[in-house]
Specification:
The complex is a heterodimer of chains A (109) and B (825).
Chain A (H helix, E strand, L loop, with lengths): L8 E6 L7 E7 L2 E7 L5 E5 L13 E3 L2 E3 L6 E3 L15 E2 L1 E4 L2 E5 L3
Chain B lengths: L3 E6 L3 H13 L4 E7 L5 E2 L4 H5 L9 E3 L1 H6 L2 E5 L3 E5 L4 E4 L4 E3 L2 E4 L3 E3 L12 E3 L3 H13 L2 E5 L3 H12 L3 E5 L12 H13 L3 E3 L4 E6 L5 E6 L4 E3 L2 E4 L3 E3 L2 H5 L8 E3 L10 E3 L4 E3 L7 H15 L13 E3 L7 E5 L7 E7 L4 E8 L2 E8 L5 H10 L36 E3 L4 E2 H11 L4 H8 L9 H12 L21 H11 L4 H7 L11 H12 L13 H5 L2 E2 L5 E3 L10 H13 L4 E4 L5 E6 L4 H10 L12 E6 L13 H12 L8 E6 L13 E6 L2 E6 L11 E6 L2 H18 L6 H8 L1 H10 L1 H15 L5 H6 L4 H4 L2 E6 L2 E4 L5
Parallel strand pairs in B: 1-2, 1-9, 2-5, 9-21, 11-18, 12-13, 12-18, 13-14, 20-22, 34-35, 35-36
Antiparallel strand pairs in B: 3-4, 6-7, 7-8, 10-19, 15-16, 16-17, 23-24, 24-27, 25-26, 26-27, 28-29, 30-31, 31-33, 32-33, 36-37, 37-38, 39-40
Classes of the chains: A mainly beta (109), B alpha/beta (825).
Chain lengths: 109, 825
């Protein structure tokens, strides 16, 4: 059986460094990950790639817990990475944790 | 708290739509129980005709199957007919004794076919045309019998006749009046329709009254006898001579009824606990038999059941579309012609008939046959009560006579094959759209856009998609009334109401607007947020807070996102003029940042495509050092002022067009607007700068300039209209600024100047900008005030503003671990 290990938690930035209803891009050794902060200060991290045509989701407008892809307007749920109906598809989700305003991301691989 | 009990009698389209709307407003307010006489869930009754004709099957037309009721915790008593409403004890009783108590009751019992009072009307083989059972009876009869007679040549009768003929029956349509569909068509259109139906094999007997239906040896109907003595063989007789609202139950319960159950503008009956919607209802003296008004009623009724109390139903203007494959007929409004002016086009051989009726420069009715491409447009103008004086001379030729791009000028939806491409942006064919409409039960343009993406990008195929929708769902499709259309799904308010409130209340931020106007979503949507942001910054310049998170990425990053996530950069070239130094700086930047593509744009400047986002601020710093600023090629803002060489060099030039262009562009630098704005200045009427398709076109003539406004060279080519002639450069600046400020203050977000001017009319613009000098000056001043102290956004970002937008947080792999790269200084 294949094992998935959490190799480490990486400190990314403070929550305040992400604009509310906005995002920051993290480059994880070549993989772009978008970290979003919602209006309610919830933090989510998903792959910076729309399941539709690969658009950079980090550049989209954040609405509640969804982001509208800047290329063709698909809505992607930030908590699951799933596209909202009627569109279908999924962007990879990354685990994160927040400790005393510091944001960490898991490098599961 | 215990939930209130809502009971609905009738399980049809109007009633279930009310429950669906109610679920959106107040999902947990009621325990809901539904009684339906038919043993099915809710199905799309208007698609019974395609089922009859064999083009669709029953499962395809189900809108809400039994799972839907279960998932929404609605108790459905399917196949149980309610026989009594006890208003004193607030309980309804069904045939089999099932009872349900209610706090609110919704009656949606629909209508029944009118059965002619003639001998033999109860024989086997005589049917109305109303539900699945009737349709199945007709399909069965077509398999074993030959002769069919349809009484009534209205919408339903003709669709039934067409279906039975397609199933191989010999069909005669009998009609009392002098021409068919007399309530929807005038004689000319009806005659053309009748001729095409006759070609399909139908026979007609007009101005004929039925005397008797004759019983055959088998006990079933075998013939029909008319008052004139003639007899026709008939194995099946379909009664389609009108419908009667089902009011017996309501009447027996003591509710006030005329022709239908009488309701007020909130869909409430005379008992305040009892509401009614659909074909059983009479509202302001009218009972509707088409689906579109019922959906409007459903929305209002749900609003009141949810205790919101703000919706009002004020009656509907209806349109008609016949669902017979290959035949295009459309009618709307009043076409009796009394006191109206007419515009008529009649090509008998070509099979095209169009009649538009006008009163006081407004469309009051229209009948179209053969080419119904512009039906939705006329209907919209009719519903909006739009003054059509300005477009009267080409009204007949439709909205698209100048040609939309992207679908080969195709305008006849019904004759298009399924494989024909409708939406050139998203590659959607007619067949995809038809399939989505049928399988998902779609009724609105927004639904089709969501499911197929057709018409969701540039919108040039909207008219075609509307036609396809209309031909699939018939009269159930109503283009929304654009004057009362809400901004988006987050609010009931129109753009105008929102703008007015922002001005009056002096709101300065998006949350203030959303709170003040009861937005239904916590943070708005991708459509209203950018609009609200624009309305705020344009109404309260220097005071309202610009929200970058509510701007589309291009305006946030000050560059254009490309399909691979890189950006394009267009430095401003005032009036299309440049210098060797600027060109050198552009060439240097292109090399330094490995720009793969350098392109000359249509707006007389240079585009650097394929720039990495991280490089943007650095590139901008280099441009700033060479004295260049943002070209705003990415914004709903001033784009370019295109110029010809003009009197500076040209032997024909009458005015200094380059210098005029530079002055205009410098004045407008940094202007945000509802949509992009493009200008052009030509030095003589040869018009080499193509000023005729710009938002403002300036053409130099001997002794001054002619000003043209509201042209457009994009999706739909629109020629700019003459505004006025002015003498000096200063006047060009003042008039142009005044027109643009009016547009900025009054247009809806994403309206180009052409859409705005079409809506308000050129006369209005002239009155405000040309005739009223004081108002022109005030507009001019307001624009100058809004633009003063504007800073180049590129320079600001090169100096470090919004740094987080451009620089990623970067981790490198070192052995097995990832470690953060030091921030660049």
């Amino acid at each position: 059986m294949e094992m998935r290990l959490v190799s480490e938690w990486l400190r990314v930035c403070t929550v305040r460094e992400i604009p509310r209803q906005g995002s920051r891009v993290i480059d994880l050794a070549g993989t772009a990950v978008a970290v979003f902060r919602t209006a309610k200060d919830e933090i989510h991290a998903i792959e910076d790639r729309c399941p539709h045509k690969g658009g950079p989701l980090s550049q989209g407008i954040v609405i509640d817990d969804r982001v509208a892809c800047p290329l063709h307007g698909w809505l992607i749920r930030l908590d699951t990475g799933h596209a909202c109906a009627p569109d279908e598809g999924c962007a990879r989700r990354y685990r994160i944790k927040v400790e005393q305003d510091e944001l960490f991301i898991a490098t599961d691989d | 708290m215990e939930k209130m009990k809502l009971v609905m009698i009738g399980n049809g389209m109007a009633g279930v739509r009310t429950l669906e709307e109610l679920r959106k407003y107040a999902p947990d307010l009621y325990d809901i129980t539904v009684f339906g006489a038919e043993p099915h869930g809710n199905y799309n009754r208007i698609l019974l005709s395609p089922v009859l004709s064999g083009e669709m099957t029953l499962p395809e037309i189900m809108l809400n199957d039994l799972d839907w009721y279960r998932d929404n915790e609605i108790t459905l008593h399917a196949g149980k007919k309610v026989t009594n409403i006890d208003r004193v004890h607030r309980v309804v009783v069904a045939e089999d004794g099932t009872e349900a108590e209610y706090d609110r009751l919704l009656i949606a019992t629909g209508s029944s076919p009118f059965i002619l009072p003639v001998p033999g009307n109860d024989l086997p083989g005589v049917i109305g045309y109303r539900d699945i059972a009737d349709t199945e009876a007709m399909i069965e009869a077509a398999q074993t019998h030959k002769h069919a007679v349809v009484i009534g040549a209205g919408l339903l009768g003709l669709e039934a006749a067409n279906g039975l003929a397609l199933r191989g029956m010999d069909v005669t349509v009998v009609h009392l009046m002098a021409w068919i569909m007399e309530r929807q068509l005038d004689k000319a259109a009806a005659d053309m329709l009748q001729a095409s139906l006759e070609q399909k094999g139908l026979k007609f007997k007009l101005e004929t009254q039925t005397a008797e239906l004759v019983r055959g040896e088998s006990g079933r109907v075998c013939a029909i006898r008319f008052k004139d003595g003639e007899t026709l063989p008939a194995d099946i007789v379909v009664m389609a001579a009108g419908i009667r609202p089902n009011i017996d139950l309501a009447k027996a319960a003591g509710l006030h009824c005329n022709r239908g159950i009488v309701v007020n503008d909130t869909m409430q009956t005379f008992d305040p606990r009892v509401y009614a919607v659909g074909e059983c209802v009479e509202h302001r003296g009218t009972a509707y038999g088409l689906v579109a008004p019922l959906f409007e009623q459903a929305k209002v009724c749900a609003n009141h059941l949810a205790n919101f109390g703000i919706g009002r139903y004020q009656g509907s203007v209806v349109s008609t579309k016949l669902k017979v494959t290959g035949i295009d007929v459309f009618s709307a409004g009043d076409f009796s012609g009394k006191g109206a002016e007419e515009i008529v086009l009649h090509d008998r051989q070509g099979g095209v008939y169009k009649r538009i009726l006008l009163k006081d420069n407004r469309i009051v009715g229209t009948v179209l046959y053969g080419d119904t491409a512009d039906g939705s447009w006329y209907f919209q103008l009719l519903k909006d009560r739009q003054d059509v004086h300005d477009v009267r001379d080409h009204l007949m030729f439709g909205q698209n006579h100048l040609g939309d791009a992207g679908h080969k000028g195709e305008s006849h939806a019904a004759s298009m094959p399924d494989s024909a491409q409708v939406c050139g942006c998203n590659g959607v064919c007619k067949g995809d759209i038809v399939k989505a409409i049928k399988t998902h039960g779609l009724f609105t343009l927004e639904d089709v856009r969501k499911h197929t993406k057709a018409s969701s990008s540039c919108g040039s195929c909207t008219g075609l998609v509307e036609q396809i929708l209309a031909s699939c769902v018939g009269g159930a499709y109503t283009p929304s009334d654009s004057k009362t259309k809400p901004m988006c799904g987050c609010t009931e308010h129109t753009h105008e109401e929102v703008r007015e409130a922002i001005r009056k209340e002096k709101w300065l931020s998006i949350p203030e607007v959303q709170l003040g106007m009861n937005w239904t979503t916590p943070n708005g949507c991708a459509s209203c947020r950018p609009a609200l942001n624009y309305y705020l910054v344009s109404t309260w310049p220097h005071e309202a807070k610009d929200d970058p998170q509510s701007r589309f990425i291009n305006e946030r990053a000050h560059a254009n996102i490309q399909k691979d996530g890189t950006y394009s950069v267009v430095p401003r070239m005032w009036g299309g003029l440049t210098t060797p130094d600027e060109l050198r700086a552009i060439a240097d930047a292109a090399e330094k940042y490995n720009v793969p593509t350098v392109k000359v744009t249509g707006g007389q400047r240079i585009d650097l495509l394929g720039v990495k986002k991280e490089d943007l601020p650095k590139m901008w710093a280099d441009f700033a050092a060479a004295g260049m600023v943002s070209g705003h090629a990415y914004g709903k803002s001033i784009r370019t002022v295109k110029t010809c060489v003009g009197a500076e060099h040209c032997r024909f030039g009458t005015q200094l067009s380059m210098s005029m262009g530079v002055k205009l562009e410098k004045m407008l630098f940094g202007m945000w607007s509802p949509h992009k704005v493009k200008l052009a200045v030509s030095g003589c009427p040869r018009n080499c700068a193509e000023a005729g398709i710009k938002d403002i076109g300036v053409i130099g003539v001997d002794g001054g300039y002619e000003l043209y406004v509201a042209g457009n060279g994009g999706i739909k080519t629109e020629v700019a209209q003459f505004l006025c002639k002015v003498a000096t450069d200063e006047e060009v600046l003042e008039y142009s600024a005044a027109f643009l400020q009016l547009y900025r203050e009054e247009a809806r977000y994403l309206d180009r100047t052409v859409h705005y001017v079409q809506r308000v009319g050129l006369d209005y613009i002239k009155a405000r900008v040309v005739d009223d000098a004081a108002n022109r000056k005030a507009l001019y001043e307001r624009l100058l005030y809004a633009l003063q102290d504007y800073k180049d956004p590129w320079l600001e970002r090169a100096q470090g503003v919004e740094k987080h937008e451009f620089v990623p947080i970067r981790f490198h792999r070192k052995g097995d671990a990832l470690s953060q790269e030091a921030e660049p200084a």
